[in-house]
Amino acid sequence: MIKTGYLILGAGPAGLSLACKLKALGEENFIIVEKEETVGGLCRSEMVDGAPLDIGGGHFLDVRRPSVNRFLFEYMPEEEWNKFTRDSRISVDLVPPGSSTGKAKTYELHHPFEANIWELPKSIQKRYLDSIAEAGCNVGEPKPVKFVDWIRWKLGDAIASDYMIPYNTKMFANNLNELGTYWLEKLPNVSYEETLASCREKHAQGSQPGHAEFYYPKKYGYGEVWLRMGASLGDALICGVAVKSVDSINKVVTLEDGTEIEAELIITTIPWNSFELVWAPNRIKDAISKLKSTSVNITYRPKTLDTEAQWIYYPSLDLDYHRILVRSNFAIGSKGYWEECRSDRFKEAEGDVTFRMDYAYPLNTIQKVDAIAKVLDFAAKSHIIGLGRWGEHNHYNSDVTVDRALKLAASLVEGSR
Question: What domains are there in the chain, each with its CATH number?
Answer without folding.
Answer: 2-86+217-416 (3.50.50.60), 88-201 (no CATH)
